């Protein structure tokens, strides 16, 4: 989307040794081009809060850098200029509002029940308690009460409270588990629990149940696969009750393991 520059547009420029300064486009003037030596071109007069003024050609503003060469030859001196607060930016944000509202409604449960992710979001929030680094900083008895949303460990909540001091003591001495790489993070967390679960067996039992949860869409993907197997091109006109009954019979009669 082409953004128009205009009077009052805010920019930010980095000055080496001084940091960022905010300026404002005042007006266009004819100047000797710094991008195309020997040519006179239109440039924007930029005024900064301290009274300093300088000119920038449009390519310099749009490139995001205070360049000294033509854009096709690459950026010049890396003194960053960021054009912000353009009117079109508000339009872009406006178009995102509906999608963000939809996402918020699904996470908060303020939508049709079959589209709600509220319960799953709550589970994802509380299972962080099994990361020793998180537990050492945030987990207390009130947090454990919130873990009631994880059905498989509801019967263990009282025992988790009783063993909490021992768990927090061990968690405080745990190494830092960096989350940058999922595989490495998972391996280190599992190794820590294998070496420490005997100190707080109820937490160990809860951890095994939580780690067995499958945070993916494999279940519904299996249903889609069964539908594709059961109904081909010749069954597109099948009624809903036929689809439902056939799928339930096939799914419930499958061999597991």
Q: Can you summarize this structure?
A:
By secondary structure, the protein is an alpha+beta fold. It has 10 helices and 5 strands; from the N terminus they run ββββαβααααααααα. This is HAT C-terminal dimerisation domain-containing protein.
Taking the sheet with the most strands, its summary is:
5 strands, antiparallel
How do the strands of the widest beta sheet line up side by side? 4-3-2-1-5
Strand content: 5-15%
Shape: flat
Total count of helical runs of at least 4 residues = 10
Number of E-state strands: 5
Unreliable stretches: 66-81
Q: What's the Cα radius of gyration?
A: 30 Å
Pfam family, one: Dimer_Tnp_hAT
InterPro entries: HATC_C_dom, RNaseH-like_sf
GO molecular function: protein dimerization activity
Domain HAT C-terminal dimerisation: 187-235
